[in-house]
Design goal:
- There is one protein chain.
- The chain is mainly β.
- Among the domains are: 98 residues, Immunoglobulins (Immunoglobulin-like, Sandwich), CATH 2.60.40.10; 39 residues, no CATH class.
- It contains 1 helix and 14 strands; from the N terminus they run βββββββββββαβββ.
Amino acid sequence: MGDVSPVVCTVLIAANMAPMSEPSFTVVLSGGGVERTTTVGLLVAPNEQVSWDIGSVPTLTTGQERQVTVEITNTGNTALQRQLIVEAPSKWAASVDGNDVLDLEVGQSVLVRLNIRADTPGSETITLDLAQSPASESTFGFVITSQGEPIGTSGDSGLDSGLAVALLFGILLLVCIPLGLSVIRGRNGAKPAQYTPPRAMPVPTQAPALQVAAKPVAKPAQSTAPSVAPPMCWTCRQPITTAMVGCPGCGARYHADAVGGCSASSIETCANCGASASTFVNA
């Protein structure tokens, strides 16, 4: 009577239990003919987690673009909607091939293809980051190696060689002109006779016209820029092919007008980072 004792319990819940659900358990105390029952409820919090799995990493050749595939899996208990940001070092280029917004349900995976190009040799780290994700492993990096000559080296050498040839030609002129004058003067030092240029021949009044056939010049083939997938609206999850607005905080894009029943124009906050819709800018 009057004593206080702690009751320690270990509660296990399923890993796939939905966030904001409320599992509960019951504690029954009895003694001396008296029974007390207490129900304890637990609120499951959202847990955003991801795992990364990269395939074989090729060795790059400078100036050539290669693809690297990364598998991303939603291992948390809530849907994952984040923009994938790719960072590359200086003189390197890396980008996502296709849509850069991930939309994964619980347990779902996606293969992301990265286009990577290196203009300098060496080993560098490519970094992948899920924008504003609270996950403990929201950032992933891998090392990739490039072999070959730095892009632009051969062109610089060509310019240097051309400059060297021009300088050498100028030196030869400076040496040969005095030598030729000395030979003309002769051994006795006599000055050469003054040179009189030949009289110009009269030009006929009517010269026959010279017919030159103009060769057709082939027009260079116009390169067609590769098509780029349109960004996806964070409200209706459909591609944006008309006017759009974007969140300056996280980069999420939305339809600017009510297109096809999309309600993006009436939202109050960003579906990705929660920023106010009044901060949206035209994208």
